[in-house]
Amino acid sequence: MAGFVKDIVGRIKPREKPTALTLSAHIPHAPEFPPFNAEITELFRYRRQAGVNIGSLFVLEKWLCPPRLCSSALSTHWDSELDFLTQCESLEHARQSLEDHWDNFITNDDFKFLASTGINSVRLPIGYWIAGREFLAPPFDRFAGIHDAAWNRFLNIIAMAAKHGIGVLVDLHAAPGAKVQFLKSANQSVTIKVLRKLASTLAPINNVIGLEILNEPSDSASLTNFYLKAIRAIRDAVPDIDLPIYIHDAWNMAKYSSIIQPIQRQYGFVVLDTHQYFCHQLEDHKKSAEQHIAHVSSTVKESIERNGRLIRNNIIVGEWSVVLNSMSMPRGADEAQVMREFGRVELDTWDAVCPGHFYWTYKTSDDNWYWSYIYCHRKGILPGKFRNGSIPERIVQKILALVRTGPHRNQEHHQAQTSHIEYWTSRGQQEVKRHIVQFDEGFKDGYEVALRFLEEAASRVGFIEQLAIGYALRNQTIKTQKKEFAWQFNHGFMQGVAAIDKAILEEIGQSSHSET
After folding, report:
1. Range of the domain at 503
2. Is residue 132 part of a domain?
3. pTM, rounded to two decimals
């Protein structure tokens, strides 16, 4: 949740640079990932994402760290990764403590649990320093060698997630220079180099769903230029794979959605990440829980929807929580019930207007408060099963039986085609009829793709318009007919996906009612 690494350089006492550590003796083997498979990757990167953040694994925040790691520092007065390193008695001690943390904080059991609750994606914050010694900038160059074993462990976490069908959004959460010094050209240059290494490594990994350039940067004129430079560098690093690139909205969704719009035309799959919290600001404290619920279900929903229309609906909520400030609680109210109701409204909103959301955070130091997904799951604050993530097998089978044994496809196609022709001819677009084959082919592809996502990944399609554009570029009919009517393919594709979506949502709704 924190932005870049806390800027505490001025608090560090000047001293000579310590002697660098020799290479760690505890670097694990890097995993052997399966070869890049475009069809598998499509499932991971374009499906709807129901996720959590794995905070404080590769970039520390003390309030999330387990007691075992916290107690290894000489003082309790630290907050960030840099603080922790300065509070350890030696470089070797810091390295041993972190290697133990990386091995034990997140394990295979965690991914097994997440998958069992319907979570199909995680957002994984990392510090730039795990990329290797050659990238270290002041003040982290003082601690060269401590993170030697982090890179392979980072890759092993991705491989571990893959075993459970979980996608990984890699978030460069901490960049050189922190917020104050990041604008310096030297720090931006290092960041670009780190992003190039991340992109070239991650793009061919089937369950990597994207790379986020920065986390919660301060809005400025130079940020836009940096984003463009970083996007260009990532595309240059892996020109043959359209790795999804995520950028944070710097708390200005309208501005950055308008910035992304032309970028998408040139650089493909680019997604806007917005973070939605309702407990930190003074204005949040002044609102009651009831007012927050109304705000999320109206103003916030409309804002995401409106800005999403500009950028192919490529907006996710990369961080959110059910937490409200105590001042928002009604007097004498059941706190858990208020949080539960607020969380339900948030989830309904995210599911209605964007293709992905990631709870902050998966686990905390004691998992005894609402910031912890584990706590919320245990207390019934969040759903026991995220059905818009991994869809239950019984629902998958019901939908497959419906489309295979009945006239569902033809009925939905006829209805969609009729509505399409009536709508556009009533607005003077008479040629739509003559080029309806493009709509028809789009519907066929969209319907088949949505079925494949359901059958092979137990998922709904998330980034529908983005996926439609890719299929349109490969469609032979569009290449041989009038290009000005190619938009009909996209409309047909989205209608085909919608036909399967409608069946899924109806079945989920019926299943929910039967369980209450």
Report:
1. 393-507
2. yes
3. 0.94
